[in-house]
Structures are given as C-alpha cells and as structure tokens.
Amino acid sequence: MVVVHSCRNLIAFSEDGSDPYVRMYLLPDKRRSGRRKTSVSKKNLNPVFDQAFDFSVPLSDLQRRTLDVAVKNSGGFLSKDKGLLGKVLIPLSEELSKNCTQWYDLTEDGTRPNIAP
C-alpha cells in the first residue's frame, strides 16, 4: 500500500497557483490499469491528500519495481495550464524495508540527487 499524504512548496503553474494531483505508476508497467491518481487539490501549493492506494503485485515482484510518482497540474479540460510540476522515481528495493513516512524532492526527470555523507 502506498499512502500519498501531502506536498509542500509546489511551484505556481499559473498566476492562479496550481491545481495539483499525484499520478503513480509501478514501473515497468505503464498501462492505464496500473495507474493510480489522487483527487485534484484546487489552487493549492501545499495540498494534503491523505489517500491510500493498493497495487496488486506480489511482494517478491515489488522488490524489482520502481514507483514513478509525478505531481501534475490539472488545469481545465481545454486549459494550457496542464503539465508536470515535478516527479520522483522511487526504487522499491530500497524503500520496502523502511515502512515509514518519507518526504521526497521532486525534479524535472524524477532522478534523486546524490546526498553527500
């Protein structure tokens, strides 16, 4: 189970702010059936979602998977304000053993910065 708690200090996608939501895939599977999405938080740069998602995958498979998490701006149906606010790729081989709440920095391509000791 993956719980999306919140985001903080998101960028404003337009002068009205952002309408963020979180979209997740369990890579390498990017089929629509494997996608999970939170609800949209209107005009909010510090949204709280507190939504839980299940992925029907055996535990042994999870250790070889990566969670692709993207925070996107919803915009309207025909809006030009849709787009990516940032993303992170989380290798589950590292994260499964932690079983705790964790903050992640978003980047344009999802790569995590190297942290010096």
From TrEMBL:
Cellular component per GO, a single term: endoplasmic reticulum membrane
Record GO terms (molecular function): calcium ion binding; calcium-dependent phospholipid binding; phosphatidylcholine binding; phosphatidylethanolamine binding; phosphatidylinositol binding
CDD domains from the UniProt entry: C2C_KIAA1228
Stored InterPro entries: C2_dom (IPR000008), C2_domain_sf (IPR035892), C2C_KIAA1228 (IPR037752), Extended_Synaptotagmin (IPR051634)
Domain C2: 1-104
GO biological process assignments: endoplasmic reticulum-plasma membrane tethering; lipid transport
Record's protein name: C2 domain-containing protein
